[in-house]
Request: fold
Amino acid sequence: MKILLADDNSSRARALSDILAGDVSMALARLKPGQSLIDAVAAEAPDVVLVDISRPDRDALDSVRALSASGTPRPVVLFVDEDDADLMEAAFEAGVCSYNVVDAPLKDVKPLLRAAIALYTRFRRTEEELRSAQKQLSERASVDRAKAALMRTKRMSEPEAYRWLRKRAMDQARKIADVAEDYLRTMDG
Amino acid sequence: MSLFPIRIGFLRLADSAPVVAAHAFGLFLEEGIEARLCVEPSWANLADKLTWGKLDAAILFPPLALVTAAGYRGRKVALSLAAPLSRGGNMIVLRRLGGAADDGDRAGDLRGAPPGDAAARQATVSVWLQRLGRRPRFAVVHGFSTHMLILRRFLASVGVDPVADVDITIMPPDQIVAAMARGEIDGFCAGPPWGAEACLEGLGFMIGGSSTVMPRHIEKCLVVSQKWLAQYPEGLGALRVAFQRSIDLCNAPDRQQDIARLLALDIGEGGLALPFAATLAVLPCGDQPERMEFCAPQTLAPEDLAWCVDDMQRLDWLSNDQTGDLLLRRSA
Reply:
């Protein structure tokens, strides 16, 4: 398991680094000074990113947010010193998949990291399914709206309107949903 | 209208046209079918996803559907061959070895027919083998495929032992042309349009295919899980109507350009990112001998599968009591 550690130089980050360094199954990379999280992820290709912030500092979340929006998102585990409910919400929204308040010395982080990776994989799959379902819904809605517009403006019956859209899709060799959206745009303009 | 949600998997192939066109042109929706199309990377992915319930249906060739239903490659899953979609279209291509005139006049010219009779084909293959000067490496698209059966029959017909004389490797169809370009394979049997593409690119020349080995054999079929059929008893009729209409469209002479253009679109735009010229050449009105044919999705007769069931039993992929009935029974 390859871990990328981004820390603000707290003593716990050093302790973490010691724990991980003692385990051959763990490869540890650290964020270099001035390096952005996205660049470090691109360079190291870690399995998981561990962000350790000593204060409820939201600046660190910006880099997580940027990573989540990038083409190479990764599971991100967050360690903080003090619990802060608002920070927790913001962290999840930014794409953190595991929020941990750590106020005692750490013994083992492996189970925690593994759980975070598993959770993240599940989450990504669900998100992917949701996106695909939403796209399908919006495609159907476009076809329905274009049909309604044709029935209204051209006094077509519903089957006529559908056939009109379908013929256009075939003639242009494009998806009927795209043709419907085009038609709705010309109506708007 | 009640909707029948269905997840249909298939590969980047020109004979996936009926499902792609039905989706793009709204033929599914019109029959109340809410299809989610899944373009998969390999045949094994399709079979596994059917087995584990991640797909409700797939476009498969009969051998893979049969072994998947028989549980030969994992857990058994009850499948039904809902409709045959296409006949023929598989092409056997040999790599151009360059230089000499013996394959030069044919090579790269897709329109040049393969050597007319068995004797001429055998002569071409034996010259090609001599010039290659080593054991040839062929690719087929899956271990349990019509392509494997056709390639084996072809090799045997030209006096080449498909086990002792050649290596056969497995590769997803859309990677075969690149593999031939890199010189990793010396020949292949693959579905449309990849054989035509290799010829048009000047990488290989056609030596045979479906039409020389088993003319008009059933190739791609819509295979649906019995679980889905039980859940949506009205769904099968709706699916067949949508596919029938799409097939009529894919066969229509005045729609060939449109179908090829659709298949050439990127996947995100509703196509399959297929090469346009090669795809147009292998559509039903195309101009070369290994073009495919889309068939009417009427009920399939067991005789249509007899040749591949025979071969599969001989190769021990199926036991002697396992036949096309595995896919043609009405219930599990």
